[in-house]
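Supplementary Methods S3. Complex input for the S-adenosylmethionine-bound model.
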Amino acid sequence: MANKSTDVCSYQRAWTLDNWVRRLLQNPYKIVGEYVKEGQVVMDLGCGPGFFSLAMAKLVGEKGKVISVDIQEEMLQIVKSKSEREGLSSRIILHKAQQEKLGISEMVDFALAFYMVHEVPDKMSFLSEVASRLKPDGRFLIVEPKFHVSKSDFDSTLEVARSMGLEQVSEPKLSLSRAALLKPGSR
Ligand SMILES: C[S@@+](CC[C@H](N)C(=O)[O-])C[C@H]1O[C@@H](n2cnc3c(N)ncnc32)[C@H](O)[C@@H]1O
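Predicted complex, serialized as structure tokens:
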């Protein structure tokens, strides 16, 4: 799976990722509310225009922190404007990643990769980096769109995740999506 060329969803299509239709179909609070708690440090990988970052910033509260990660500076600037508008900027750290390296040094309680893993060329290196940043009782939710990612491609991603020491906890049911909740293995 490494080095397979992939397209990235451009910032020019950011509006397709944050609108009322999506809010109806994929309420961000319902999707991550079960995992994200007050005071936690969480990571939104491939945050795009911040559909989940903003919701998670409310869920972690004043003492928590969201690390919003993207390779497109323009996406991060959209998150910055929204967080300033909503008075949440002190809880959101913007992090520009490289396509082949996240470069996050912090350990996190929860990581989200929503509709982004299929855009990552080297899934092995990506998943190894995410696994290394999870606290021992941390959780990692991967969600991929059914319309882009076949069951067998999703299963291959989970196989790579397993080889990086992650264990599957559950298979959340989310509309239009394939999803897996993972945790660090016991080795
Ligand atoms: C389809 S969008 C999804 C955005 C957001 N997760 C959501 O659900 O609204 C995918 C995002 O992942 C980002 N992305 C792609 N490859 C990445 C990588 N290797 N590291 C970090 N972000 C990446 C893209 O720039 C884009 O903003």
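Residues 130 and 169 are 16 Å apart (CA to CA). The two ends are 24 Å apart (CA to CA).
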